[in-house]
Design brief:
- The chain is of the alpha+beta class and about 70 residues long.
- About 35% of the residues lie in helices and about 30% in strands.
- It has helices at about 20-35, 40-50, and strands at about 5-10, 15-20, 55, 65-70.
- A hairpin with a 6-residue loop joins β1 (about 5-10) and β2 (about 15-20).
- The longest helix has 16 residues, at about 20-35.
- It is globular and about 35 Å long.
Length: about 70
């Protein structure tokens, strides 16, 4: 099973993207936070390492991203 990133919002359909390992999932999450949320690099890296749901951007849309690990 693959790691997945789950990107959800009220304004678009949920995007579930598989990744071959945790590193690639973290890189994707960092990219989304930096490009769409204007997160500072250090904060984006910390959030991706935790992998927990975070707001991409605080604009009232409740757009979130998280990493889901494969079930054992």
């Amino acid at each position: 099973m693959a790691f997945t990133t789950v990107h959800q919002s009220l304004s678009f359909d949920t995007i579930i993207k598989p990744h071959k390992n945790r590193f690639h999932a973290e890189v994707h999450m960092i990219r989304v936070l930096r490009e769409y949320g204007d997160w500072p690099q250090d904060a984006a890296v910390d959030a991706a390492r935790k992998g927990e749901p975070v707001l991409v951007r605080d604009n009232g849309d409740d757009e979130t991203i998280e990493i889901r690990e494969p079930a054992d």
